[in-house]
Amino acid sequence: MIGSTISHYKILEKLGEGGMGVVYKAQDTTLNRFVALKFLPARVSDSEQDKTRFLQEAQSAAALSHPNICTIHGIEESDSPAGRQQFIVMEYVDGQTLHEKKQTVGLKQTMEIGIQIADGLAAAHEKGIVHRDIKPENIMIRKDGIVQIMDFGLAKLRGATRLTTVRSLLGTVGYMSPEQVQGLETDHRTDIFSLGIILYELITGQSPFNGVHETAIIYEIVNVNPRPISAVVKNIDTRVEQVVLKCLEKEQNERYQSVKDLAVDLRRIKRDSEARHSFSAVREIPDSASSTASSGRAAGRIDAATQNRRRWLWILAATVFFCSTALFAIRDFFIQSPNTPFAIKTLILPAESGTLSSTGPLTLSPNGHRLVFSGRNGNGKRLLWIRSIDDVQVRPLPGTEDASYPFWSPDSRSLGFFAEGKLKRLDVEGGSVVTICEAREGLGGSWNQDGSIVFAPSSHLPIFRVSASGGTPVVLTQLDTLKQERSHRWPYFLPDGQHFLFLSQTTTTGVRADADAISVSSLDGKERKFVVHATTNAAYADGYLICGLGGKLMAVAFDPAKLATEGDLVSLVERIQINAADGAAPFSVSNTNLLAYQFRSSQTGSQLIIFDLTGKEEGHVGDQAEYWDVRFAPDGQRLAYALNDRLSNNLDIWIYDLSGRTRTRFTYNAAPDRLPVWSRDGTQLVFASNRKGVFDLYRKRLGTGQEELLLESSENKQPFDWSADGQFIVYVTTTNLKTRSDIWILPIAQDQKPKPFLRTGANEWDPHFSPDGNWMTYCSDESGRSEIYVRPFPGSGDPWQISPSGGTRPRWSRDGLSIFYMDPQSSVVLAEVTARGSRVDVGKSRLLFHAYPKEYAGAYDVSPDGKRVVVNSLGTSEISPPTTLTVNWTALLKK
Fold first, then answer.
1. What are residue 654's DSSP bridge partners?
2. pLDDT digits 0-9 by tens, 643-678
3. DSSP string covering 338-374, please?
4. End-to-end CA distance of the chain, in Å?
5. How far does Cα 251 stand from its chain's mean position?
6. What is the pTM of this model?
7. Which of 513, 516, 488 is nearest to 500 (CA)?
8. Which of 77, 82, 101, 217 sits in a 20 to 30 Å window from 363, CA-based?
């Protein structure tokens, strides 16, 4: 490129390269001036989305005319040695980037740089343009001292079409705002946060967020307040510190609401500082040479007396100030203490032997002595861990492998939890795990003083009651179809032992104050009363009901006798970590005024990882997010999956192109859409959607907006496979605890009347057709645990067990001679099978590699050629936020 001529621009040298372009210095041979030309880098020049963003940059900056913004002369297109290319013609800035210069910038120059950047951003914001990538590399300092903002490659125009991108984190991590790193909506206050980071760095010489790697930096941006500037730089003007820290507020509403206001404050501080220096300079002018020695000595005596008098005045003023401050502090202490309790917060860091998991709430024992949480050991296995509040050691609870959503007995001696599709109990002081009853997808339980447990057995069922010693569960609540309720979950007993709180979720997903709610019911099933709108589990303690709403942990006064709230919800924690998929918030309260919770982490969710059969990672699919139900297309080049959007809290189906690394949204309905199943020619998808109160089956062809309702009934239906001849869809129904889950066949090319394939007293799920269509593999717990079986299709025949010691998620190889599955240790296993006549011979089984998909049901698949496996994995880089323990938490509400 260097030395060549493009249009009438002679390329002289390469100036730099970034994610959105390569910049060259060039000579405009027509106007005889130097310019900068920006081209798309070769690796992304074929991407229509990057071209659109490249053009957006030109449009963004061209709309601006300001001395602190690099001027755009135009956008042109011409042939180049690399082919036909578009390029932006920009003003050539002779100077250095702030990144190159920042080590030599003093406080006075920092203020001037901050003012000029703020002025440039104010001009952009007035035009409705947000830069979104303010960093030292994008700030040029000209030789004449003028500061100019460069590179509007990530700029967001007000009213412009939002570009969909695989990379959800737009910007440079170290200079991004909390809303950016979480993939939330951004506005002009995002630029203010980034400018605050730059000012902090220029003043202190260090970043305000000092994580050792990108994920840790993201966590600090969201959850950790910067170290005070005064702790790093001595004698700093407190007003400077206040300005910078106001820019760095986590909540957008607490930052400067206008960059103009920021510029005004910076100018005021700079002006006052210059005035003080000028006054000092005047006072230090020496006496005139014409003064006599005596007058000089007299002046010296006067100056000395004056200085001495002023010194005593300062000492007196300081004494008065410190005495008055001490008196006020003593007064406040005696007013507040000992009669007024105060809250004490402390952090409980994850133990080295187990990283806190994001799959289930932590739980405090009722007496407040112990904390139980879900975590991983060194081998990646997830189980329950217990820690005494007065100890730093944690220990695993044997027999709790893959356990979730633990809850305590009233005497703080035993735990209830869900594992292997069952509700179980365990004495924490020792003893074996006892199975209580079936609970396929347990979503919370509460243990009563009378020895009964109320629990949510599934994501689409009401609340049930069962004895803690075991027995047949009895239904307690009824789903209100008029309100489109789709489940009741997270029960919590009130002190009277007769009433319990629970969360009712509706088919209208999303964080809406008029949809999901906390209700109260009774053990006799005769009462049902609305309490408060909320989107998470709730708890009661010390006269207050605590729940999550809008990403915050809230509290409201609650009278358990009247079963009613008193007053309004008050915010306890601004950023609580909520599992949007099931409404679980990790917080817990004890009967001793203790509150434990986790802040929201930007790293909630999972990562789709593609492995070869040796367990070597071949690459990631997109970014960390909340993925469900991943499935390879028949061509092996596309993936369909359900993705939970964090803004709307809704599941939709997306299609990801592995070759182009782009994704396309497939469904748009406000109800949750999930479980995509490909047709064998890769042109259609069948999926489940809860649009009418239950999950029905829909079909949609790629490239069209038309959706066909295939099967509607009163039962929830989960599609799993489509036969090679296109004749049959196999799906699973789950109605209640008695009938459990069964396998059904929908003949879509015939009469479309569903027929049962396997309906027994056991649970059967995850069925898949063999490539020749003569066999069906599936999971069943008829033996007491999940195993892999094969049966003839469509005729009758005996089942043949494939897995010797437990297995889930079976997948056929393309030739039908092997079955992939997951063993209980989350390892991918390949079993050889030979199916002929009515007999199946099981050959050798080979363990391929270990993965971590347990928290995400169905999020695993094998490529059609049998050479790659995609796993929805937490991976080894998972970072869990620490637990915050608050003593006397109710004092926070009485401030």
1. 641, 665
2. 877 555 578 999 999 988 888 889 988 788 999 999
3. TTS---EEEEEPPPTT-EEPSSS--EE-TTSSEEEEE
4. 66
5. 16
6. 0.52
7. 488
8. 217
